[in-house]
Amino acid sequence: MTATETGVHGHKRRFEVDLRTALGSVEVPSPVLTASGCSANGAELEPFVDLTAIGAVVTKSVQLRPRSGRPTPRMAETPSGMLNSIGLQGPGIDGLLSDDLPWLAERGARAFVSIAGTRVEDFAELAQRLRGVPGVLGLEVNISCPNVESRGEVFACDPVAASDVVSAVRAVADPAQPVYAKLSPDVTDIVSVARAVTDAGADGLSMINTLLGLVIDPDTMRPVLGGVTGGLSGPAIRPVALRCVWQVHQALPEAPILGMGGIRSGLDALQFVLAGASAVSVGTAVFNDPSAVARVHDELAAALAQRGFASLREAVGYAHR
Amino acid sequence: MTATETGVHGHKRRFEVDLRTALGSVEVPSPVLTASGCSANGAELEPFVDLTAIGAVVTKSVQLRPRSGRPTPRMAETPSGMLNSIGLQGPGIDGLLSDDLPWLAERGARAFVSIAGTRVEDFAELAQRLRGVPGVLGLEVNISCPNVESRGEVFACDPVAASDVVSAVRAVADPAQPVYAKLSPDVTDIVSVARAVTDAGADGLSMINTLLGLVIDPDTMRPVLGGVTGGLSGPAIRPVALRCVWQVHQALPEAPILGMGGIRSGLDALQFVLAGASAVSVGTAVFNDPSAVARVHDELAAALAQRGFASLREAVGYAHR
Amino acid sequence: MTGDPAVMAITAALLTRPAPRAAHPPVQRVVEVAGRRPVGAYVELTLAAPEIAERAEPGQFVAFAVGGETSGLLLRRSIAIATAGDGEVSVVVSAAGPGSTWLTERQVGDTVDVVGPLGRRYPMPPRGTPALVVGGGYGSAALLGLTAALRDAGSPVLAVVGAATADRLCSVDELGALAEVVVTTDDGSAGRQGWVTDAVATVIGQVGVVYACGPMGMLRAVADAATAAGLPSYVAVEESMACGIGVCMTCVLPIVGEDGRTRFSRSCTEGPVFGGDRVRFADVGALPWDVVGADAMGVVAP
Amino acid sequence: MTGDPAVMAITAALLTRPAPRAAHPPVQRVVEVAGRRPVGAYVELTLAAPEIAERAEPGQFVAFAVGGETSGLLLRRSIAIATAGDGEVSVVVSAAGPGSTWLTERQVGDTVDVVGPLGRRYPMPPRGTPALVVGGGYGSAALLGLTAALRDAGSPVLAVVGAATADRLCSVDELGALAEVVVTTDDGSAGRQGWVTDAVATVIGQVGVVYACGPMGMLRAVADAATAAGLPSYVAVEESMACGIGVCMTCVLPIVGEDGRTRFSRSCTEGPVFGGDRVRFADVGALPWDVVGADAMGVVAP
Ligand SMILES: Cc1cc2nc3c(=O)[nH]c(=O)nc-3n(C[C@H](O)[C@H](O)[C@H](O)COP(=O)(O)OP(=O)(O)OC[C@H]3O[C@@H](n4cnc5c(N)ncnc54)[C@H](O)[C@@H]3O)c2cc1C
Ligand SMILES: Cc1cc2nc3c(=O)[nH]c(=O)nc-3n(C[C@H](O)[C@H](O)[C@H](O)COP(=O)(O)OP(=O)(O)OC[C@H]3O[C@@H](n4cnc5c(N)ncnc54)[C@H](O)[C@@H]3O)c2cc1C
Ligand SMILES: Cc1cc2nc3c(=O)[nH]c(=O)nc-3n(C[C@H](O)[C@H](O)[C@H](O)COP(=O)(O)O)c2cc1C
Ligand SMILES: Cc1cc2nc3c(=O)[nH]c(=O)nc-3n(C[C@H](O)[C@H](O)[C@H](O)COP(=O)(O)O)c2cc1C
Ligand code: FES
Ligand code: FES
């Protein structure tokens, strides 16, 4: 029962909206998180955002070994968006465990650790290594990676490969750590992938990852990115992301969704919540506004209050009713 | 052999670039066309564009019967793009044959007629009706329509359904009229669809149609569009469109491509040409600039000249070399 | 027009004819802002746009590109023409969202990219017919050209101008120079307290034709009052438009045609002026079964 | 730093230390343009930004949001700080593409959203060390703060300032007040005809440290010349940046670290100032096998 139905819709409320939400079974004080790869491992945001007040820092996808990432150029600006091809540069799980996660834990910031790999066992090993690590609230499984055992087809594009990864991770991961599968929009039927990974034990769904795109440099007359294609993100893709969240919430209303894709303001976040997301990640918008994650939290709180919601939970999926 | 290789790259050339291209086997004086549904059936552009100078008017997808289209609201503006859900409003094939096509033919404008249906036979009947019609240069088969015989799955999302439509159309269409299949980007593997339809006899590929998207109105807290989801178009989707053209040209270098998706300037069109398109359609940009189709032609000509190309043909697919 | 007697009967029941096509095609120009003036809650912009000014007819509109060179707003904003003459066109803009707010921030000397004049004009009544013009909010501005034309054609004009509050009234003085004006505000902050429709009811008996511009709810009430009084009415609608030039089909309304059949008609090129008795206001946003082509959408007659 | 003797040997071969972290974290502010002045082909903007001015150190930069409220340009534009003091920060902007063009169009009184100061500063040499500063194009502006600091620290400063043409020179007079300046232009339209590197070769024997800011090709030539002369050099690079604050990893260059190993280091937070002998210029845009983590990308040692 929402406050709307009790008649306060459209009136400013004096009391605070309850913004608490949960990622799987773990409660967090804010539904607004960073997005993997868009806030590094958190430290750089400290001048701009109170890291303990946001839902969690979703860390850059980590693999087993340190990775250099791809050669530059790694990005191209596009209308209301950008293309990136970083190639998952990072310190590897050892570096994350020894440096980044302790740094976050010391400050009391929650980490939602994104893991990536090119074979099922990689993901499982990463989940194993992250068991019981202080401050690690849960895992986001980035299955938008090429599967070396299947001619490089991306795990997230095949319901079977995607669910293989998720069940392997869920089997070894810390039972206290919820496992979210991060879905790619570049599929004919995202609902079938969502269904497969929830059947495989995913505690929630992160959606969406970037869309595959390309930009050609009119001067060099070659693709701008070293990696030829790259991932499209930012407000440009927001309607696609919202459609994915809508479709999946419609089909699987019980599956918690961490929504993302072009969120820049509280009203953008509200759209994701109304479509069915119980939490959201702010990614590319951080590049435009380093304090975006905190600002979106505040704006979302105000937007919910204005609409007469007493809590975030009441608003989740409201547009379907 | 390009002019670049002969050393004039980067220098302004005094002579004109040869912009002629072909749609299938039919030669046209310009590679810049309208996009289906974005210039109605041409007449409204007359104050702004010389319809005989552009490649062709790609008409609004026509079905057998007149259609009212969907209830309003039918559009939502999005960052650097828009969502539409028109529902193929139109006069039906009788109206097109009696009014619109004769109007275009009288003026000497070329029509590339987009046809749509909900069963294979509809498409075939439309192709049959368009045989030998004066001014009809060819057919674009809009397979981004729900297939009533397959629980509403969109033809373009299934290689088999897509090729069924194309082979039925090719079988009955006027042999002098090239048949282009218009592909949807909302698939896991666009190359497999492209391959299926070319195997089925498509003389070329139009790509891309809109991406499925959704916008929620923060005031009503419901989807903006009457049809809930809609098609995302405009510069926002350009990187996705370019990636599709790139992938398909890479896999099927002999298949002529009519490229589209967010083209707004001559340099945008150039990117599509370099990626492999031998002609382009300008869609949503017309809403921003009614003379966009003619302007893009001029800008593309200048851009090719600046880069030392003597003809459009030399530039097609150049970024792959 | 068909000779079918059933259709003739329906047509005969309507008091209006569809607005005629504009005499001149639109042009697209980059023009300079020659004047800028806040009017209450709105901003009036005057554009140095001779080619648009000389073509414009009362009831037509222009469409502005918004946001400048790097804009992420792709669609033009449609704005009714208030006055046109002496090489200039004026418009009155309300800062509603990002696009119209950007417009209201333009300064004298800035340039804007504008297409116009667009759409169809208000049809004129027989010479000398007493006329009522009804404006809501910034909609009153769009009646200026019409009121002047009516006066020139010998029609005495009564104007009812309303808004929610005094600062959202518009063009009252300019209309006052051409017509007898009644002002209403919802909150009584200017003129009579109440809705324009209340004022309309008291004066409608004195006129032979009614014109309106303003929010859809007001247009509907005015059109209904006119039709009930047996008077023809013409309303300029405001429907969300992607292109403004007739190519996209986003701006349709269910409109009864000359043949008596309802079609989804484009408010940009077949409107924005429609016969008040031809707009099926109750069906806006719906798909009634008797709209031409509804059957192909799977809607069946009840 | 590791004690591995092999690594020590490599490190010892380098003449520079990595630039230290900035003393103060950046802030994000909406600030007013307090001054605007065309300088040749560029525009100098002065911002009323006390919190940035008081934190800024020579070599740092700021990042501007561009295009205004409705902008389709999402990414900030990084611009080097020219001068900082008295509550103001100045920058020199070249209108290259849509974002920088928008910046050059800002007028006094307009507001801009800016984040800074960002990145690391030019390290100072031992007190009194004679220094050479080399600027190319608008890059010369970024040397103003450094040159003043060197002077304050007792270093005599020689400046070589070059550009393609006279109108693309920058900050010549300001540098002239602090240092002995040699000007070069490619076309001879001002100063000596030729490249800055020609002028550098003639004076490098007189200094103990070299600093540079300008296009990558020039930085490489200057760094190579310094290293060949056995001098430490520090260059401020300009690499395409999506965030400017260290969170996106788009701006990396192959940089030799203190441990002698090459990493893809972020030019926004680990730069933009790098030791000239630490930047592997020849490998920019490539993925050499010996970059840390290249093995995991499938690159194998030859
Ligand atoms: C024929 C016509 C004449 C008009 N005349 C005037 C006028 O004289 N003065 C004035 O201030 N406004 C007028 N409007 C309304 C004006 O076009 C909208 O207020 C404006 O487009 C809102 O844009 P926005 O960016 O501020 O708002 P947003 O809400 O951001 O707009 C988003 C999208 O919705 C459309 N939209 C939003 N509100 C409206 C609306 N009320 N009507 C139509 N489309 C809308 C916009 O065009 C845009 O495409 C007129 C509209 C039409 C169709
Ligand atoms: C640390 C640093 C300091 C700089 N200092 C200055 C300065 O003092 N004055 C000045 O005029 N310019 C400076 N630049 C370059 C300036 O950031 C770019 O010229 C500007 O971003 C170009 O943007 P645009 O929109 O005009 O061009 P576009 O070509 O449209 O830019 C598209 C994208 O590419 C990036 N980009 C394009 N050119 C460059 C470039 N040369 N360097 C880095 N990124 C680029 C843009 O940031 C943007 O994300 C600096 C860049 C960096 C990294
Ligand atoms: C520069 C960049 C790097 C990214 N890196 C990762 C990553 O390492 N792992 C991942 O799951 N997603 C990654 N993403 C995707 C984002 O987490 C997010 O899903 C996507 O960008 C859409 O959200 P946005 O539009 O808010 O950015 C990256 C995105 C960007 C722009
Ligand atoms: C309002 C609107 C209507 C459209 N109608 C059709 C249509 O009837 N048939 C079709 O094949 N594509 C249709 N499209 C898709 C365009 O033809 C084009 O494929 C797509 O918009 C991408 O190009 P753009 O970004 O240049 O608009 C429509 C697009 C828009 C915006
Ligand atoms: S607004 Fe495009 S047809 Fe009317
Ligand atoms: S620009 Fe984002 S990390 Fe350097």
Model description:
The complex is a heterotetramer, with 2 copies of chain A (321 residues) and 2 copies of chain C (302 residues). Chain A has 321 residues and is α/β, with parallel strands linked by helices. Chain A has one domain (21-70, 87-214, 233-315): TIM Barrel (Alpha-Beta Barrel), CATH 3.20.20. Chain A is built from 9 helices and 14 strands. In chain A, the strands form 3 sheets. Chain A has an 8-stranded parallel β-sheet with strand order 3-14-13-10-9-8-7-4. A 4-stranded antiparallel β-sheet of chain A has the order 5-6-12-11, with no helix packed on it. Chain A has a two-stranded antiparallel sheet with strand order 1-2. In chain A, strand 5 and strand 6 (81-84) form a beta hairpin. In chain A, helix 2 (120-129) packs parallel to helix 3 (159-172) and helix 5 (238-251) packs parallel to helix 6. The relative contact order of chain A is 0.18. The model of chain A is unreliable at 1-14 (pLDDT under 50). With 302 residues, chain C is α/β, with parallel strands linked by helices. Chain C folds into 2 domains: 13-20 and 121-278, Rossmann fold; 27-118, Translation factors (Elongation Factor Tu (Ef-tu), domain 3), CATH 2.40.30.10. Chain C contains 7 helices and 16 strands. Chain C has helices spanning 5-13, 50-55, 98-104, 144-152, 172-176, 196-203, 216-228; strands spanning 27-39, 42-48, 61-64, 77-80, 83-85, 88-93, 111-118, 131-136, 157-163, 180-185, 192-193, 209-213, 233-236, 252-256, 262-266, 273-275. In chain C, a hairpin with a 2-residue loop joins strand 1 and strand 2. Chain C is globular, with a radius of gyration of 19 Å. The two termini of chain C are 28 Å apart. Classes of the chains: A alpha/beta (321), C alpha/beta (302). The interface between A and B is large, with 45 and 45 residues. The complex binds flavin-adenine dinucleotide (FAD) (2 copies), flavin mononucleotide (2 copies) and FE2/S2 (inorganic) cluster (FES) (2 copies). Residues 35-38, 60-61, 84, 86, 88, 114, 142, 182, 209-210, 231, 233-234, 237, 260-263, 282-285 of chain A line the site of one flavin mononucleotide. One FE2/S2 (inorganic) cluster binds next to loops of chain D. Chains C, D: Residues 20-124 form the FAD-binding FR-type domain. Chains C, D: GO terms for molecular function: oxidoreductase activity. Chains C, D: This is Dihydroorotate dehydrogenase electron transfer subunit.
